[in-house]
Give the backbone structure.
Amino acid sequence: MDDFDLIIFGGDGDLSFRKIYPALYHRLNEQQIDDGSRILAVSRTDQTQKEFQERLKAKLEEYVKDIDQDVLKRLLKMVSHGTVDTGNGKQSKFTKDWFEKASQEIRVFYLATPATAFGSICKFLHDEGYISEGARVVLEKPLGTDLKTSEEVNDQVAKYFDEEQIYRIDHYLGKETVQNLMVLRFANNIFERSWNAQEIDNIQITVAESLGVGTRGGFYDNYGALRDMVQNHLLQLLCLIAMEPPGILEADEVRDEKLKVLKALRPYDKETIQTDTVRGQYTRGKTDEGSLPSYLEEIDKYDSETETFVALKAYVDNWRWGGVPFYLRTGKRLPNRYSEIVINFKHVPHNIFPEKKDIANNRLTIRLQPEERIELVQMVKIPGPGGYRYKPFSLELDYAEHFENRFPEAYERLLMDVVRGNQTLFMRRDEVKASWTWIETILNNWKHETNPNILYEAGTWGPGDRVMDEGSEWVKSRHVLKVQKQGGSDEK
Ligand code: BG6
């Protein structure tokens, strides 16, 4: 990897300490980057180099398992702290000198700050003449809170950077198992042939989290699950599952295909907002380990309309997917943390076996995290006499069993892609616009809706059970999910 200069705004923030520096540590440890690169952690607070280095060291020791002290030392040598207040354009002498000495062709500005600061940061960089020819800028989510604000943020950045220089992060795209979706779909012939409305009954994408909002309450209460998770992560997963094969694996070819999916999403209206969307908020709950606080207690407020759970039945209106429901679900304070995509194939059209016992539908489950694996449920004959007796059986590929190497964290891959100049795993502006356009059909209808959040107890599977009739598609689809969670009736 070529050496680079990396400037992180929000460089002493939580995201930087938890994700960005550990990612750099691992890339250094695995010799993908070397000591010629320089990193400037920018924040508004004045602090000495020693103070910052001590904090960074403590944080890295906290967030990196079995840290190697030699590698840590090398990383600390590469990182310095710069004080900048982009609001008034003031910067420390150290920062100015650092830029004067910056010599690498590749200069990466990483904006790990709220999007409201992006405009002033970009202007500052421009006014100081820091945007070199090889410069690129990385934007952390969330980009705005709706279509209008996200367009404003994108406009502000576009004044100073071309689209080819802008890297909008969705860290789900950096996950190994999410990248594997591309290989699973486009390096195997058997799946692609049946990847359509003729063969598939429904698709379910679930990102369940067991934690609550914790210390992020102030931020989260302005967003909620729809903006925080669906607008980006779940829609990106949906795109990878639903898109047409790109001709080649290049950034714009892949992003063109994803964009077509986003544009084909069916907007919600007054009726479907009632039947096809559910939102909820967690109340106090209990687990074996003790009690769990409610959302309101966590954010320390008496009242809030923010949803911490959302379930949607979405449709991609095109030839491949006409009529196939995509169930999207995400929530906080659910019983487990897992992300999973389930492809439910259609039933066989006719049962020829005399026993007439139910034939389970084929089901492909892609477990993205944790315990990454792929499962394919198929029917098999039970060996032995007694005619054709059969039952579902699951073929499993467990990643940990077959691949011993450490799974790099999403940020490792994404950071290196920025340095390499590869935009494939980053969202293009028109994708962000299309996803907000669709999300707004939910937000705007929720505003007028008569059924607001449904409360669910922390530590349960969300509000579904109480709002949806037994036997409805929703319940059936959730049932599939529960069966899998409990180890299932399918034999392994
Ligand atoms: C973030 C959201 O983008 O993704 C968080 O803001 C969420 O609310 C997180 O917890 C989930 O990411 P992961 O990688 O832990 O699944």
In short: DSSP finds 18 helices and 18 strands in the chain. The first helix runs from residue 14 to 29. The two ends are 43 Å apart (CA to CA).
